[in-house]
Amino acid sequence: MTDLTPLDKAEAAAREAAENTDIARVVAAVLATQQVMQQQAQAPAQQQCQHDHHKQRRGAGEWIGIACAVCVGGFGIAFASIALAVLGGVAAIVVLVLRSMWTDYRKGR
User: Fold this and answer.
1) Which of 21, 48, 51, 58 has the fewest CB atoms within 10 Å around its CB?
2) Range of the domain at 13
């Protein structure tokens, strides 16, 4: 075996260092890629829900407003049903009068 000269030793050390830096760069790139992937996997979970989960309760003014709307609606429905009853009664009277007139006309009175 031949003895390596200092120049050969330096050249071999330079090659080894170059190979080691290439490996180190690849390892660093892989680690950086894994880190970015983990951040991207965590980012959607954090950004998925941005609204406030605590619903505000209705205040007294809102409940009074709702109660007033229900009362007005109830009175409206009551008056509408009364109007329909009156209309039905009037229609029945008109039908009876017309029927009476028709029977009188057919008898020749």
Assistant:
1) 51
2) 1-46
The pair of structure tokens assigned to 100 is 């009476």
**Three-class HEC string of 36-70:** HHHHHHHHHHHHCCCCCCCCCCCCHHHHHHHHHHH
Token pair for 18: 């170059």
Are 39 and 78 part of one and the same domain? no
4 neighbors 12 (Cβ within 8 angstroms): yes
Residue with tokens 């409206």: 76
Number of domains in the chain: 2
**Is there a single domain that holds both residue 41 and residue 4?**
yes
* Residues 37-94: tens digit of each pLDDT: 777 777 655 556 666 666 778 888 999 999 999 999 999 999 999 999 999 999 999 9
Number of H helices, E strands in the chain: 2, 0
Condensed to tens digits (0 to 9), the pLDDT of residues 66-77 reads: 999 999 999 999
The residues, ordered by sequence, that sit 6+ positions from 12 with a Cβ below 8 Å of its Cβ are 4
